[in-house]
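quick one before i forget lol
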Amino acid sequence: MFHVAEATYAVVSDPVRSEADRAKPAGKLRPVRLDDPFDEGRLPLGHDRRQIAYVGQWRGDRTDPMWTALLTEIETLATPPWVLHRIEAKEAELRTERMRRQQAEARSNANETEISSLLAKLQSTEQHCGNAEANILSLQWDLETKLAGKVAKINELIAVVELTTTELEWIKIVHALPPAPTEMPASRPTQFVEEAE
């Protein structure tokens, strides 16, 4: 049983007082004032210690904080204690789950940040590797070009050495020949003359 709202004329009625007397010990009483001004001295004894909610100026806005607070309080008064305990237990579970989810999201965000950082490092490393590979290819090209130049010079030197060797062999051959006569004989040898006659 609830005693929720009363107008000035209802305060003095016996049924209203009887309802209030029964609702108060059960923790189900929520005094609400509908009109203004209201003489709190006219409240039944013992019912004047509780704050009275005033809804006389409420215009039907269901989002009005005063109205939503009043509804929440009435719902709490109307709900059996075992239901309230279950609701509190479920709310505690929800808070725990929400906290677990927030921690998981924080870990996920940290992991995503770490992955992004690692990807950036990997891209940087790939770029450095690409630059290093380009440098290696450039050095390889330079070395191959220089090597080709050196090989050409070596081939030139080999040709010079071979030519020099050939010349030296000719020189040896020429030096190995008996020396050429330096003077020709003045007269013909006799044996040639006799044959001719």
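fyi The chain is about 65% helix and 0% strand.
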